[in-house]
Amino acid sequence: MTKSTRLKRAYVETYGCQMNISDGELMEGILANDGFEIVEAPEDADVVLVNTCAIREHAENRVLGRVAQLNGLKRERPDLVIGVTGCMAQRMGETLFERAPYVDLVMGPDGYRGLPDALENLEGYRSDRGSNSRIRGPQLAILDLSLGENYQGLEQRRTEGPTAWIPIQRGCNHRCTFCIVPYVRGPEKNRNPLEILNEVRDLTSRGVTEVTLLGQTVNSYTSMDLSFPNLLSEVARVEGIRRVRFTSPHPNDVTPELVEVMATEPAVCEHLHLPAQSGNNRTLKRMLRRYSVEVLLEKVELVRAEIPEIALSTDIIVAFPGETDEEFRDTLELMRTVRFDEAFTYKYSAREGTPATRLPADEFIPMPEAQVRLEELIEVSRGIQAEINAREIGRIDEVLIERVGRYPGQILGRTRRNKVVAFDGDSERIGCYTHVGLERTTGATFAGKETSQPELVGQS
Ligand code: SAH
Ligand code: F3S
Question: CA torsion, points 368, 373, 374, 380, in degrees to nearest 10?
C-alpha cells in the first residue's frame, strides 16, 4: 500500500562493497514494497538515497562531493529529499547535516526497515508547514544499531540477471584495529538458514544460476546448529544452482570442513578470497588480525592441497602505523610466496574511533612514503598476476556470460576461477554458459574465443 502522498519515485545510488550493493537492493525492495517506483536517475526521483561506504577517507570524500552535486537538483526542485544511508551515514551521524546542510535524512545500516516511515515523517512535517519546503528541515537521523536486525522477511529488489548477491550475515565480531566496520555495522548477526535457502530456490525459479553469499566474515556464519560449511553445501545442492561463491572469509575460519565442502560440492567455484592484510607478524598482531603469517600459509597449503585449481585473491594494507620498511618487505615476500591471482591493495587510512588511530602520532607514515610502498606492492602483485595469467593461455574454461563488453559485438563472462574473459558473441546470450578458449591476456583480464566444450576424459 502506498503510504506517502507525494514522494513516489526513489533513486538509490550505491558506493562501496558487495554488501553495500546488496543493501542498495534491499532499500529498493523495501521502498518498492511501500509503493515507490524505483527510477534509474536522480533527475527522475522525489527521493534520492546515497548509500555510502566509510572504509577509507577517500570513499567518504567522494560521497560528500556527490551529495553537493545532488544539491544542484534540489535547488531546482526544493521538494527533493536527499538521504545519506549506510556506513558513512552511521559514522558521521548528525555531523553530516553540518557538512552537508541540504541532506534531509541520515540513516545507518540497521535502519532500512524504517525507511518508508522516515520518509513519511519528513513528508508529513513538510506538508504541515505548507508546500513551501524551502524552509529547511526537518532533518532526520536514524542511527540505532540493533543486535537483532538481519532484515528477516524483507525482499531485495534485484535486477534481472544470472547472478545474485545473498547477504547471510551482517556486522562483524572482530576488531581489526584499522577497521570501521564493527562500529558502523555492529556485531555479527546471522540470517535464518531456511530463509536463505528459500531465497536461493526462489532465485533459481527466476533464472539465477550463480549466487554469492555475503558477510563481513562470511565463513564464521552459524545459525540453528548450521555452520558455514553446512550452509554452503546446502546452497550448492539447490536444484538449478550451478555456481556458488562467497565473500569475504576470515582466514581463521578457513577450516578443513570448509575446504572439504569447497572441494567436493561441484557448484562451489574454485576461487577463494583470503584477505591477508600484511605479511609481517608484528603488524598482523598490531592489526589484531588474530593469525600469523605461518597460519595463513598453512591455510593456503590446505586449500591448494584439496583444490589444486583454486584461484586465490587477497586484500593488503600498506603503511599501517608503525610498519617499518622491513616489515613492508615481508608483505612483498608473502606475495611472492603465495602468488595470489589478484590483490586488492590499499594505503592505510585512519578512521576516527578505530583503535589504530590511538597509536603514537610519530608512527603514522607520511603519505608520500605510503604511496611509494603501495606502488611497489602493486608492481609486484601485478607482475605475479600477469605471469599466472600468461600461463593460462590455451586453457578452455567454462564461462558464464554476464554482460556486454566494451565494443559492439563483444560480451564478457567469468570463469569459475573468477577470471574475466571478453569474446565475440551475442548479448542475447547473457545468462548462458559456454566454453571459451583463453587466447590473450592484458595481465588482469583475458580475450578469447568461444569453442565447443572440451572432451571430458572418461565420459562417454
Ligand atoms: N571483512 C570485510 C572487510 C571489509 S573492508 C570484507 O571484506 O567484507 C575491505 C578491505 O578494505 C579490508 O580487507 C582491508 O584490506 C581494507 N581496509 C579496511 N579498513 C581500512 C583502512 N582503514 N585503511 C585502508 N584499508 C582498509
Ligand atoms: Fe573489518 Fe576485520 Fe571485521 S577487517 S569487517 S573488523 S574482520
Answer: 150
pLDDT in tens, 356-408: 999 999 999 999 999 999 999 999 999 999 999 999 999 999 999 999 999 99
* Ligand 1 atom having least distance to the Cα of 351: 22
pTM of the model: 0.93
pLDDT digits (tens, 9 = 90+) for 71-93: 999 999 999 999 999 999 999 99
Atom of ligand 1 nearest to the CA of 315: 15
Homologous superfamily (CATH) of 6-142 is Methylthiotransferase, N-terminal domain (3.40.50.12160)
Domain boundaries, the chain: 6-142, 163-390, 396-450
Compute the chain's Rg from CA coordinates.
Answer: 23
CA quadruple 414, 20, 183, 229: dihedral positive or negative? negative
Give the tens place of pLDDT for each residue, 98-117: 999 999 999 999 999 999 99
CATH class of the region 396-450: mainly beta
Task: Pick the residue whose CA is nearest to atom 5 on ligand 1.
Answer: 55
Return the beta strands (E) in 268-404 as ranges: 271-273, 311-318, 342-347, 396-404
What is the mean pLDDT of the segment spanning 21-49?
96
At the top level of CATH, which class does the domain 163-390 belong to?
A: alpha beta
Q: Could you tell me if the CB of 216 is within 6 A of ligand 1? A: yes
Closest Cα to atom 19, ligand 1: which residue?
A: 179
